Amino acid sequence: MRLNIHDRFNQELPADPVLTPSRRQVTEAAFSFVTPRVPSAPRLRHAVTEVAEMLGLAPTDLNGDTFRRVFSGGEVIAGTRPYAMCYGGHQFGNWAGQLGDGRAINLAEVEHRGQHWTLQLKGAGETPYSRTADGLAVLRSSVREHLCSEAMHHLGVPTTRSLCLLTTGDQVLRDVMYDGNPEMETGAVVCRVAASFIRFGSFEILAARNDLATLRQLADYTIRHHYPEIQAENQADTKASYGHFFHAVCQRTLTMIVHWQRVGFVHGVMNTDNMSIHGDTIDYGPYGWLEGFDPDWTPNTTDRSHRRYQFGNQPKIALWNLLQLANALYPLVGDAAPFQAALQEYQDDFSREYTNMQASKIGLTHANQAANEADEELISQLDTVLQLTETDMTIFFRLLADVRKSSNVSAGRDFLAPVIDAFYDPESLTDEMIEQWRAWFSLYLQRLNQSEESDAMRRERMNRVNPKYVLRNYIAQLAIDAADQGDDSLIAELYELLRDPYAEQPERQKWFAKRPEWARHKVGCSMLSCSS
Ligand SMILES: Nc1ncnc2c1ncn2[C@@H]1O[C@H](COP(=O)(O)OP(=O)(O)OP(=O)(O)O)[C@@H](O)[C@H]1O
Ligand SMILES: [Mg+2]
């Protein structure tokens, strides 16, 4: 197994001089060197050939002993020095001080085909940032992280990738529902891959400590390697470059959030330590997928009372998080204007991009123009009717593509036939609800009939925007239950399914189904805790 190692982060930025994993505050440093824990009996459970190829690995490497040892933490790649990054963060709206990679360990950076990738193990043991926890991860949460990273990538959502999932052979104690019933679970490690794992909190911790020298070093480093176009344009004016950097992060974050809302993804813990400066989705913890279309829904039990991170709040929370990043970068510039301008632009652009995305989900085209008022009305009314009775988001939008321009909505319920499978209980639709749906469909059909486009063409366009298959909460749980019994076939099957989420895949139609009743209140299917 050969990787083209080209480390930069741990070469160019200041290191913590202490080399033990003793828990501590780490100052004037961007990271600490650490050694991954050696697992007792590592076993490869699933690997992604496509990510391996992206890194320059051969498919045959995946089955080798070296691969198993390196990506379970048992062997350090020659010439590399693994490290944990120092960062802080705002958790649920409050400043939490130093957090850092408590169980993530960066192995190395790899250069392949002109691109740089950082390899990071999650769950490979203690670091100076582990605080009161053990540095480990369990199979349950690792299956979720591994499958969802790849599913999101194939949905077209910016995300960290996942190279592989291994179990360590060690047991890990976890209290899943924080109710005083801890149990032993199977330990696991995932290898994540991203351009870098620099987070909003990486800057916040340095600003909070007023360590402007390291803050500037980190900002310069990030711009130099990850936003080189900004450096090129602002050679003579580094202050301006920090503002441009912030602007670029705002725009990438915006893109990521619009995608989340498009596919019905709820992150669950949008703390600033879980926000990537690349606009990648990072930290697949208590995330979930909207099943019934309910903007108030959050899967995270820790957030049950405040619902800060519910689906409908995600755009606003991203803005709040960006404001924290602006505060952290401000001392480097000393002028609030560029930050305010970028935040304002985020809001303006967001509302336009969001409406356009929603319009595309119902098949409207605007030939590069913003949606007009009538279309906005159509979109907002849909939001209301979707919530009349429990209606599956993914299934509804996918089936909506089957509606014909010639449909007759004047009487009866038949006009709902194309989308009827999206309703959890079609019997619960009252006459009044039917009339609301009828009103919406009449407007919708009027709008569709303003266009010359054929039903087939519109359907094709809509099916590229509305996935057929997403990693429903209960589906992930089925894969976890099987993996817990040693059977990884469902992980492999779901990985294949989710590689092509917009395709019909008739042979896998059983996964195009509403959440079954048994999963409605089952832990892991509708409620997720942060215990992972
Ligand atoms: N089992 C654990 N051992 C040590 N530290 C942990 C553990 N679980 C979480 N942490 C730390 O607690 C903080 C918040 O955790 P959070 O759940 O956001 O992250 P995470 O799931 O561990 O990781 P990441 O953000 O890297 O995906 C982070 O500093 C994280 O490293
Ligand atoms: Mg995290």
Automatic annotation (TrEMBL):
The keyword Metal-binding applies. Mg(2+) binds at N274, D283. ATP binds at G100, G102, R103, K122, D134, G135, R192, R199, D283. It is an enzyme of class 2 (transferase). It catalyses: L-seryl-[protein] + ATP = 3-O-(5'-adenylyl)-L-seryl-[protein] + diphosphate; L-tyrosyl-[protein] + ATP = O-(5'-adenylyl)-L-tyrosyl-[protein] + diphosphate; L-histidyl-[protein] + UTP = N(tele)-(5'-uridylyl)-L-histidyl-[protein] + diphosphate; L-seryl-[protein] + UTP = O-(5'-uridylyl)-L-seryl-[protein] + diphosphate. The active site is at D273. GO terms for molecular function: AMPylase activity; ATP binding; magnesium ion binding; manganese ion binding. Keywords: ATP-binding, Magnesium, Manganese, Metal-binding, Nucleotide-binding, Nucleotidyltransferase, Transferase. Its cofactor is Mg(2+); Mn(2+). It comes from Novipirellula galeiformis. PANTHER family: PROTEIN ADENYLYLTRANSFERASE SELO, MITOCHONDRIAL. Its EC number is 2.7.7.-, 2.7.7.108. Coiled coil: none annotated. InterPro entries: SelO. This is Protein nucleotidyltransferase YdiU.
